[in-house]
DNA sequence: CGTAGTATGTACGCTAGCGCACAATATGGC
DNA sequence: GCCATATTGTGCGCTAGCGTACATACTACG
């Protein structure tokens, strides 16, 4: 697991800011630990802070009337939670819960808004991130329609892996199922196949990835699309 | 069909601008007719213009490696095409094609960008729209996972209806199927049920909605969520 | 060290939607 | 008015994933 003390630049958005800009924000950035399962925002709820994860992962998901749910995107150290604060409307129908315990830096909403409205590099970075998030959500929509549970599991594992500095995720099959919006048994079956192929190993809430390349052989194209889009959008973000 | 001459304020985003702002843009807004099937943007392609539909409807969709496709959102008179121009990155993996022929006002990309960067009411309106678009895409993702073809067809018909001033859509079942990312036969079946219930009537590429309330009885919650979110975000947009 | 409770494995019938094949019917262009 | 073509109807068998039920196995905690 992640034992390093958190650093500002472990969050890619903070890291993408010009040093002077980050320096200015530092005194307002508060480090907080987020426990697994913590609900940061319910549907229609208002966030008081925006969160920049370093080691935590937050899941953006919807809960339907019949109780079933689906993740539309995850937010890890590549992003932030709380875009509705600067996009307008202040809240969304989305839920946000902690999917992997860890640390975030947080910033008071009004302060972020004020900074955003300066229109400088921070605005640029946040809008780019929002664009990347849209791609992620869109790809989830398409993937939900056309790809198998096994493919989607691989996508989800890879995206989660990219947000951690570890090959092990603390995660029950039940939880993964609710993220993907499928039955727990569906995950048991798909994960069983991957384990037989010696791509992953799991025991009661711990999944270890043995062979990342193996995941990439089983994943659908959706992972690559999202990954490349994030890379592309942040490669030249400072220009 | 729509025989009125197009007006600027038929597009809700343009209508939401303060009169002075709209006045300033008018001389740059060019009215163009968009024929059915026109591809405005391929995956990774760059738009030279942004488009504000009045009577046209544009579909944002993905095409997968295996050739299947799915719409992630539609853009009608409630919105605009080309958010990536101001969000950053200039292009996206999304395709944009004309789903219903009609008119759009278009604006040169660099000009829009310049206006956006003023940070005034236009920026506010465009960001709010983007937020609403995110809700629409998210809801599509969830709907794809959990709802039946019939429910999704109703959602799609209602959303499309809201963008037209007409009860009749010019639309083959084949086209609807490719939007929803399902088989054409699936649409034939679902549409058959709706026709038997006297909710719609169709003949070779023309669908007439006889009973809008009937559609709302068969639709899933997703329609309402999207609809309400658009209403909410634009109710107070000028404040 | 035993046990309660959580997590995972497995089985079975069921349904929605798929893929394919082909029939039937409408419509616009000649 | 006729025909080529686009559109819609229908009928298979098939599969992925669902819902349910219950068995097993791990592990944390007393």
CATH class categorisation of the largest domain in chain A: Mainly Beta
Compute the number of strand runs of chain A. Answer: 10
What is the third-level CATH name, the topology of the largest domain in chain A? Jelly Rolls
How do the helices and strands follow one another from N- to C-terminus of chain A? HHEEEEEHEEHHHEHHEEHH
The number of helical elements of chain A comes to: 10
Assembly annotation: homodimer
CATH architecture of the largest domain in chain A: Sandwich
Secondary-structure class of chain A: alpha+beta
> Globular, elongated, flat, extended or rod-shaped: what is the shape of chain A?
globular
Mean pLDDT of chain A: 94
Strand content of chain A: 15-25%
What Rg of chain A, in angstroms, do the CA atoms define? 18 Å
InterPro entries (chains A, B): cNMP-bd_dom, cNMP-bd_dom_sf, Env_Response_Regulators, HTH_CRP, RmlC-like_jellyroll, WH_DNA-bd_sf
Domain HTH crp-type (chains A, B): 147-213
Keywords (chains A, B): DNA-binding, Transcription, Transcription regulation
GO molecular function (chains A, B): DNA binding; DNA-binding transcription factor activity
């Amino acid at each position: 697991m992640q034992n390093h003390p958190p650093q500002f630049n472990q969050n890619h958005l903070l890291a993408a800011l010009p040093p002077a800009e980050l320096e200015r924000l530092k005194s307002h950035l508060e480090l907080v630990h987020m426990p697994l399962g913590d609900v940061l925002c319910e549907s229609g709820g208002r966030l008081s802070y925006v969160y920049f994860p370093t080691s935590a992962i937050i899941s953006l998901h919807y809960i339907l009337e019949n109780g079933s749910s689906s993740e539309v995107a995850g937010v890890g150290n590549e992003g932030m939670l709380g875009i509705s604060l600067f996009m307008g409307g202040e809240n969304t129908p989305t839920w946000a819960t902690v999917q992997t315990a860890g640390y975030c830096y947080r910033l008071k909403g009004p302060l972020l808004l004020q900074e955003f409205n300066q229109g400088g590099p921070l605005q640029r970075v946040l809008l780019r991130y929002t664009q990347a998030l849209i791609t992620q959500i869109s790809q989830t929509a398409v993937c939900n329609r056309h790809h198998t549970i096994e493919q989607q599991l691989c996508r989800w594992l890879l995206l989660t892996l990219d947000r951690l500095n570890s090959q092990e995720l603390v995660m029950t099959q039940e939880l993964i199922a609710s993220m993907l919006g499928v039955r727990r048994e569906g995950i048991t079956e798909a994960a069983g196949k991957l384990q037989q192929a010696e791509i992953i190993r799991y025991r009661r809430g711990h999944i270890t990835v043995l062979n990342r390349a193996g995941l990439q052989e089983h994943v659908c194209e959706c992972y690559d699309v999202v990954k490349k889009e994030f890379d592309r959008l942040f490669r030249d973000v400072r220009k």
